[in-house]
Structure formats: structure tokens, C-alpha cells
Amino acid sequence: MPFIDTHCHLDAPNYADLAAVCRQSEQAGVTVTVAAGAGLDSNQRILGLQQQQPAHVWAALGLHPERPEASWDEVEAVLAQLRSHRGRVVALGEVGLPHYALLDGSMTAEQARRHEALLHALVKGAVALSLPVVLHAPHAAADKALAIARRYEPSGVVFHWHKGSPETTAAICEAGYFVSVTPEVCYRERDRELVRATPLRNLLLESDGPWPYGGEFAGQSTTPAVVARLAVEVARLKGVSLEEVRELTWENAQRLFGCGGSGSDPVAGRIGAG
Ligand SMILES: [Zn+2]
Fold it and tell me: Second label for 119, Cα 20 to 30 Å away, from 63, 66, 156, 250?
């Protein structure tokens, strides 16, 4: 059973040598990486990466919610991209609600309200295409995003980079959705507590590369390989074997992205399933 990095911005310049990144990750045991799209151009790049490394790269196409300039035209265009490439795509993502852009003042309250309206349309679009949704909704944004997910009930939902309250985390898990944690689990008590509180059947692991981490990762560039180290820490926190973490997080990812039983090739699995 391999490890899967369920969220990485593989189209970032840091990963210019994709073959080398995949090789290095596979040497660490991470054989699949879900590449998250941030907008039209990013999505296009990710489709190209999926074509280059179809066994390693699972493509998700999205519209990043921390970008103030996102528009209705862009939503339409992203949904059109998803429709055209449906057979090669495993999720809508990342999409969601802003948090950091509001905190640092780079987004107005009005732009944030527009993002909320855009998210309704995007999630509806995912439902029409039977695609799961990768959500970015940190801290207080998680409650609102959960309400939107519950309203449209996509086939699956993961709260990536999850930082919600224990109550929100419990509600996410009760709804049958997933929470995805980052290498911060290795050095931040808040994130360690989140892992303790989340049932393993609701947990996924991500690098969110190229985001740089602190603690033991300070000064290192982030690649999907870090998920193998993250899994060791999750096993320790949950008091289970590394094997169990590997197995359950793999099964969770298969359940979420709808590629159960298809090995590491979601597209072949879909074709096989008709
Ligand atoms: Zn991201």
C-alpha cells in the first residue's frame, strides 16, 4: 500500500523537474500526488503534468479562494475545463472560502461575499459532474464551507489545510467528510491535537507543497515525500502502526476520489467502471 499526498501545488516553479520530484517522492514511498489547481492557467498546467506522469499525478482543477480577483467568468471557464477533461480529473479543487486574504487586508468583505457565491456555483458544478471537492476553508471559514457542502452533498469532501475548531472537526467527520493534515503535525500542538481528535477513517495526509514548514523542516524545500514523515508522526499520535496509517489513508483517498480498486490509475479505474 503506497502513501498518497492528497494536496500539492505541483505546477509551482519549485517542481520544474517533475520526473525528479516524482522519483524522489516514490523513493520515500509516496507514489501518488493529487495536484491542486488554483485557477485557469494553473489548471491547464496541471492537466499537462497529469499527461506527463499519469500514474503519479492525479489532477484536481480549482479556483483558489484567497485570490481577490476571481470572477463569475472564471468560474464558468473552470467548470468548462472540468467538463472537457472529466475523464482525467479526480476532483474539483482547490476551491473554498478566503481567510488569510481577509486577515491581511488584501481582500475586501465584498470580494469575500462574492467568493461565497462562487463556491455555491462551483460545488453545484462538481455535483453535476459527480466529482468530490477539495476545500480550502481555514479556521472560521470551515463552518460556512461545511454548510455549503451539506446543502449540495457532493460525492466527497476534504477540508484541506484544516484548522477548524474541535466542534467543526467533529461535524465534518460526522458528515462523512475528510480532514487533511500537513507536516505542521510534527511540531505544532494545535495540529497534533487535531490528529488525536480525528478518527483515522476521516484523515488524509498532504504536503501542500511548496509551502515551507518550520520545526524539523525549516530551510528544506517541501515535496510530496514529506508525507512519509508525516505518516510516522500520525501513527505515533494515534498509537497505531505505520502500516495501519498507510493502509487507511490510502483507502480514504480511494473512497474520496472515487477510484477504488483501480490501483494507482484513477482514469483506468473510471474507464473500467464504465
Ligand atoms: Zn493549496
Answer: 250
Find, among 117, 121, 51, 49, the residue nearest to 80 by Cα. 121
Beta-strand runs (E) in 11-153: 30-36, 57-61, 89-96, 133-136
- Kindly report the length of the chain: 274
* Ligand 1 centroid – CA 7 distance (Å): 6
Q: Identify the structural domains of the chain with CATH numbers, from first to last.
A: 3-272 (3.20.20.140)
Phi, psi of 62 (to 5 degrees): -150, -160
pLDDT of residue 270: 40
CA-CA-CA-CA dihedral for 238, 239, 241, 244, to nearest 10: -40
Distance 41 CA to ligand 1 centre (A): 15
Name, in order, each residue with C-beta under 8 angstroms of 216's C-beta and a sequence gap of 6 or more. Answer: 186, 187
Cβ 66 vs Cβ 101: under 8 Å: yes
pLDDT along the chain (274 residues), means of 10: 95 97 98 98 98 97 93 97 97 96 93 95 97 95 96 97 92 97 97 96 98 97 98 98 98 87 42 31
**Residues β-bridged to residue 8:** 35
Q: Residue 43 Cα, ligand 1 centroid: separation in angstroms?
A: 13
pTM of this structure: 0.93
- The rounded Å distance from CA 235 to ligand 1 centre is 24
Q: How far apart are CA 165 and CA 175, in angstroms?
A: 15
Burial of 19 (0-12, 13-18, 19+ CB in 10 A): exposed
Residue 196 is placed in which grid cell? Answer: 488525536
Q: Which grid coordinates belong to 175?
A: 458528515
Which residues neighbour ligand 1 (ion) by CB within 5 Å?
Answer: 94
Which residues partner with 159 through β-bridges?
135, 179
**Could you tell me the distance, in angstroms and rounded to a whole number, from the CA of residue 9 to the centre of ligand 1?**
6
